[in-house]
Amino acid sequence: MAQAASKTCEICVSSPGHNYCEQCDQLFCDGCKISHLRTKMSKNHTFLSGPNINPEVKLYCKEHDENFIYYCIECDTPVCKICAIKNHKKHDLSEIKESLEGINAEVKTDIETKIRKLQSKIAEIDQGTHTYQDDVKEVIQAIREEGKRLKEMIDKKVEGLINTVKEKDTKNVQTLQSVGKEIKIALDNAKEQQKFYQDTQGIKNTTKILQKLKQIKSQIDQIEETQVPMMPSIKYDKKKAVESEIETLFGELKSE
């Protein structure tokens, strides 16, 4: 006998039983009702729902005014004893209570199986999410390390170019300073001979001044005029790096 509508579901015994199955004479919650109607044996069962249902009323065959005592497995319907003889004589019949026990066990198994499968899927998603997030962290770290390596290569190249410029600058400046020093010495010698020449202008003796001028000329001729070297120059021709060239330096992301 079904309990009152205010009681709990007679299947899961946890939720309110607001749905009364007219064929099974049992109270169902909304979830168990759905599962009940999805079962092949009870998919055509009818329900009374709401606060005013009266499960105390016995189910009966309206055609013969008899209680349902059998369940026709072939026709998937409850039958009374008269229906069993007249319309379901050669059919496979079972008692209502036996059918109910079978359906109850089937529903319980279906629910437990479904819960296990859903829990397994959730665990699979959780594990997959964790693994994927670990992969993301590893990829980010790999990209950062690759970027750091490329930056170090660039810094090394920059320092190498700067050192080359500095070395050439030192060498060229030393060469220019050396030539400049030689020319300065020659200039000092020329100025010295110029002073001697000026001193000769006060000599009255023609023979003496002639000798002095010859000496000065000889000294002037000996002063070497160092050639000014070609002035060094340096330029830097920049290359415009395009994004496609930069991308070739990095690896590729592969995702599914």
From TrEMBL:
<dbReference type="InterPro" id="IPR000315">
    <property type="entry name" value="Znf_B-box"/>
</dbReference>
<dbReference type="Pfam" id="PF00643">
    <property type="entry name" value="zf-B_box"/>
</dbReference>
<keyword id="KW-0479">Metal-binding</keyword>
<protein>
    <submittedName>
        <fullName>TRIM9_67</fullName>
    </submittedName>
</protein>
<dbReference type="InterPro" id="IPR047153">
    <property type="entry name" value="TRIM45/56/19-like"/>
</dbReference>
<feature type="domain" description="B box-type">
    <location>
        <begin position="4"/>
        <end position="50"/>
    </location>
</feature>
<keyword id="KW-0863">Zinc-finger</keyword>
<dbReference type="GO" id="GO:0008270">
    <property type="term" value="F:zinc ion binding"/>
</dbReference>
<feature type="domain" description="B box-type">
    <location>
        <begin position="56"/>
        <end position="96"/>
    </location>
</feature>
<keyword id="KW-0862">Zinc</keyword>
